[in-house]
Amino acid sequence: MSSEAAAIETKVRGYILENLLFSSDAAELPNDASLLERGVIDSTGVLEIILFLEGEFGIQVKASEMLPENFDSVNNMVRFVCRLQGVV
Amino acid sequence: MNSHPQRLLHDSLLANAASPVLARKAAVVVEGNAHTYAELLDSASRLATALRDRGIVRGDRVAIYMDNSWPCVVSVYATLLAGGVFLLINPQTKADKLGFILDDSGARLLLTDSHLDKEFLPLLAHATHLMGVICSGNLTTGHGIVAFDDVIRDTLPLTEPAATIPLDLAALIYTSGSTGQPKGVMQTHQSMVFTLGSLVEYLRLGRDERILCVLPLAFDYGLYQLLMTVCLGATLVLERSFTYPAQVFARMQAFGVTVFPGVPTIFAMLLSAHQREPLCFAGVTRVTNTAAALADASATRLREIFPSGLIYKMYGLTECKRVSYLEPELAETRPGSVGKAIPGTEVYLLSAEGQPTPVGETGILHVRGPHVMLGYWNRPDLTGQMLRPGRLPGERVLCTHDLFRMDKEGYLYFVGRSDDIIKTRGEKVSPVEVENAMHAIAGIREAAVIGVPDALLGQAIRAYVVLEPGTSLSGKQIRALCAARLENFMVPQDIVLCTDLPRTATGKVSRKALLEQYAH
Asked: Which candidate, B20, B28, B128, places its Cα nearest to that of B69?
């Protein structure tokens, strides 16, 4: 993973831990865990995440991109942000 | 068409699965996978045998604690076929409340998903009435838990139908109440079959509908999408949730959805997605809203997304499922109204003293009809507050405790609630239930909870918290501790730490004073 991608991962993890899991225990959030399956997000939670990603990384999320493959785990979100930002 | 009258809730499934036209038709499409009526009856009938084998007899309660999934749909009909009473528990429910509902209902069996094991496993050791657990997904070993798929594969379909009659209970539907403990609304087969007929009539639904369901089946509004579908011989397009709208949109296109049931939060998300990228579902012919008022402006903008959709504004409460609906053609001429009583029922307004309310004045809404609940399970005290003597000997009518106005043509206008219940994301939340969970947190001396206006949620939950001296808890920590005890939608969005709470003359915490304080 590039250092840009690693920096994105740190920010995404930090946001989810603090705002959705309300936790400082990194072990509670495996990077490949499904957030829906674990009950971490619901429909308004995903909107909060999108607003955060848009503000933090200067991206625009289209309605047609609001899919589990882009948002349902830390890994998916990092891949999605990297793709929009052109980070390898 | 079957000549057999529909008396029991599952009679329509039996008829559809036996019909040469419908047996091979998709009854339910779950996350893109279609299941026919024949398949639904076969699986439900096998599971029904398994329920019988595990001791379920007529009238026993079976708890279904599952996501919107195929096993969940099968479980509902299996329980009915076995002569049992189903209760659906929202999969967001945490261990304490789950334990309360299992004990309160006296459920004999728990049908659940393995990914919820963190919540239900700790309860098994001391659940008083539970005789067994059947679990879908990757099975947790031990604890005498049986795998859902194995049961369906290894059990034969039911041979002996249950002796159920229409007066028997079909479901307990748990709902939040102002006392803080959820209570089980008792609904009979007769009452639910009547309600289905009334809903299908005014929504003008037919056999060719493809009805979307993104609402939890544990919410009666979600459950009735399934029941209406089977009653019609139509197809349900069942999604786990509305969390990933693009996925839902793709499924709506792929399966040609014609009916879109939502709550204001879902419509707000839909309109926000529409702003990002224009949406248009020309195949949708019916759009329904309930649980909280849909603003007239939102309804107007929804017409861009659903150009051929009739938009229905409705009002209801679990105690009678649905009270009223506004004919979609009248949306422009009756702004702000939730319409008239659903077919086959009537409503009237009474003053607090029980006198008829003059036209145009505010009164308490009363509901009369076969859709009214039998009462709350094991709670005659609370039942007495809601069901009052009616005009005929022995008759009981439902006092909603909601305040309405009625115009001279009989159209209803919601004025307000006469209790403290908060409506957020279309869910009813009891402030007392949230406060009780907060009082159980070490370090919190006292908490008071109110609902405040919120564009997306309808109402957001705000908690005023007084900490024990010498404790330091942040708002975020408190929310985390709440999230471990409460469903997501009950966790306060906003925590206000304070040193004291306003009180009434009798020393009770005054939510009214907090609301007034918030408004200024």
From this structure: B28
